[in-house]
Each structure stands twice: as structure tokens, then as C-alpha cells.
Specification:
With about 220 residues, this protein is of the alpha/beta class. It contains nine helices and nine strands. It is globular, with a radius of gyration of 17 Å.
Length: about 220
């Protein structure tokens, strides 16, 4: 019911390979080009999925449509339309999650869902995305404000779950089973609030390499 996405952003190939050998089956990347380099550099592994979990610029949409099994961070109709076109060129249907900014932080991507009264404002764009033939919406994703106490994030996870439930009742023709939320800092709370995909990096593969550390290797 709950799947672990091991975040390998900025991790070297040997760490990613070690994670796969240890049994990891879903790897999450934040940058399309870095992710594609890893995908192409490592031998294909049966049952291993690569997920794009970071913000995707429109000009990188083709890479996502060609190389990733799931996009967690679809955050605009414009990006959806580009992904749909590139997925059609690959003769595939790309599974996606819709990203919502539940904390209202300007630094975070996603539709602004910090005010529950705005739920219905999203419906026209969501309806348009659901009509795209080469995308398949499977649920929602969020990255809440970083809290010192993981329990402080609970209200944001609850907000995403309630938003998902609202969309599911409005658009019952779509699948809304996935909630991508929770990181190394707060994943137990996210699971308690209904997460089906948790994105954990540091707690499994250690701290990310800095630019200077990678250059020294």
C-alpha cells in the first residue's frame, strides 16, 4: 500500500547502484538531465522504476516523457500539454501526480492550495489535464514547509488528503489513489495521514554531495 521512493539527487552512481543492489525498486530524481544520465549509465534493472519528483521546466518536458515512469510534480496546464505531446510521440501514456503548494510558500512550486476556499478554482485546469489523452492523473503530491517538529507538518498532509478527496468526488472517472508526501524528516506522520508514496533520501543514502565535494573526487 505504501511505497518508498529513494531520493538519489546529487548522489554518485556507485551509491545509486548500491541502493538497487540492496533492494530499492523506486528511485527519485529532482533534475531531468541528472536523472537521465544515471538511467543511461546504469544497467537496466527489471522492476526498478525512475520517478521525477522535482520541478520540471517546460523545455525539459521531453526528457521526462521519454525516460521516467511517474512524474510527481506536474504543476501547470502548460507543462501538462507539452508532456502530453511528447508522450504521444513516444506512443505512451505518462502517469502523473498534480503538485499542490499547501503551505503557500513562494519558494515552492505547485498550485497554491494554502487556502481551502480556493479548491474549486483549480477545477477548470484539472478538467483540461484529465482530458489529455497521453497523461494519466493518479493523485496528488506536496512538499510542506519544513518544520522542526514533524507533527507540525500534519495539518499540511491533511490538507492535501482532503483536497484529493474533493477532486475524487468531482472527477470520479480519474484515479486518485496516490498521495506523494513525506520525507526523511516527517514520513511517519505523512504515512499516518494517508501517504502512499514517501520520498526519503538522507535517511537512507546519506547527505547529498556538495558541488565542491563532487569536484574533489
Amino acid at each position: 500500500e505504501i511505497r518508498l521512493v529513494v531520493v538519489t539527487k546529487s548522489q554518485p552512481l556507485e551509491i545509486v547502484q548500491a541502493a538497487i543492489e540492496a533492494g530499492v525498486r523506486i528511485l527519485g530524481e529532482n533534475y531531468p538531465e541528472e536523472g537521465v544520465t544515471k538511467i543511461q549509465s546504469l544497467p537496466r534493472q527489471t522492476g526498478v522504476e525512475w520517478h521525477m519528483i522535482g520541478h520540471v521546466q517546460s523545455r525539459k518536458a521531453r526528457l521526462v516523457a521519454e525516460h521516467f515512469e511517474l512524474l510527481h510534480s506536474l504543476d501547470s496546464l502548460k507543462l501538462a500539454q507539452r508532456l502530453d505531446r511528447f508522450a504521444a510521440e513516444q506512443n505512451r501514456v505518462l502517469p502523473v501526480l498534480l503538485e499542490f503548494n499547501v503551505g503557500g510558500e513562494e519558494s515552492k512550486a505547485g498550485w497554491d492550495a494554502s487556502d481551502d476556499s480556493r479548491r474549486d478554482a483549480f477545477l477548470p485546469e484539472i478538467r483540461a489535464i484529465l482530458d489529455l489523452p497521453n497523461l494519466r492523473v493518479h493523485g496528488l503530491m506536496t512538499m510542506p514547509p519544513l518544520e522542526t517538529d514533524p507533527n507540525d507538518a500534519r495539518r499540511f498532509f491533511q490538507r492535501l488528503r482532503l483536497l484529493r478527496d474533493h477532486f475524487a468526488s468531482t472527477f470520479p472517472q480519474a484515479e486518485w489513489r496516490e498521495l506523494s508526501m513525506g520525507t526523511s524528516a516527517d514520513y511517519p506522520v505523512a504515512v499516518e495521514e494517508g501517504a502512499t508514496l514517501v520520498r526519503v533520501g538522507t535517511a537512507i543514502v546519506g547527505a547529498r554531495r556538495t558541488k565542491s565535494e563532487k569536484e574533489a573526487l
